[in-house]
Amino acid sequence: MEFSVRLKELRVDNDMSQTELAEKLNLKASAISKYEKGITQPSIDTLKNLAEIFSVTVDYLIGMSDIKNPYSNSQITPNEADLIEHFRQLTYENKIRIDERIKTMADA
């Protein structure tokens, strides 16, 4: 599914007007309209903000995944989800180092 379709679907499902969404993003309603019509594409920063507003991943927004939020069954914040994604990209050795540091900090 295209970004434009997903954006409109998420906005409507959240009972939000184009104007309301635009205000949350500090954009004009016409920008949201253009996104939903597929005329223009949002910046990376706008995509990140949209993902946070709708509690979905950027991958879901751009059609790379059909899973809205892999962490939706838990109470993980968007920041925690970002940390998990960064952690997954680390080497095994760095994962061990981070794990040790977190445990040390948690015990302090």
From TrEMBL:
Gene3D superfamilies, A to Z: lambda repressor-like DNA-binding domains
Superkingdom field: Bacteria
The answer to whether the entry has keyword Transferase is: no
Q: Keywords on this record?
A: DNA-binding
- Domain HTH cro/C1-type, which positions? 7-61
InterPro entries assigned to the protein according to its UniProt record, in alphabetical order: Cro/C1-type_HTH (IPR001387), Lambda_DNA-bd_dom_sf (IPR010982)
Q: Which PROSITE patterns match?
A: HTH_CROC1
Q: Where is the signal peptide?
A: none
Q: Which Pfam families match?
A: HTH_3
Q: Is Repeat set as a keyword in this record?
A: no
Checking PANTHER family in the record gives: HTH-TYPE TRANSCRIPTIONAL REGULATOR XRE (PTHR46558:SF11), TRACRIPTIONAL REGULATORY PROTEIN-RELATED-RELATED (PTHR46558)
Q: What is this protein called?
A: Helix-turn-helix transcriptional regulator
